[in-house]
Design goal:
By secondary structure, this protein is mainly β. The protein is built from no helices and eleven strands. The strands form two sheets. Strands 2, 4, 5, 6, 9, 10 and 11 form a seven-stranded mixed beta sheet that branches. The N and C termini lie far apart (37 Å).
Amino acid sequence: VQLQASGGGLVQAGGSLRLSCAASGRTFSSYGMGWFRQAPGKEREFVAAIGWIGGSTSYADSVKGRFTISRDNAKNTVYLQMNSLKPEDTAIYYCAANRYGSTSNWAPGYDFWGQGTQVTVSS
């Protein structure tokens, strides 16, 4: 599976962005998909994940109520809608896929990673 993240950019605090992650491969629908982020000088952290069925999701406490993860298996794409953005959301955002179809928040449990897309939120 190859993953290509896009949709990052510069936005003012309170604004919105939608990230997309396009996946190759015919087995996309069986993978659990996650978003992680890494800010300068910090470790990579979990943001959100969605299970292979799509009905199960999980979120980091810091983004609950502001971010929404979704997937379109027909398009082999997972999305991260980010609303009410804050300067502390500034980071490189990575999408990842796990073959178990889970909503794990554990980065080593993911088998494939995209290249990342930069999100910058100005105050």
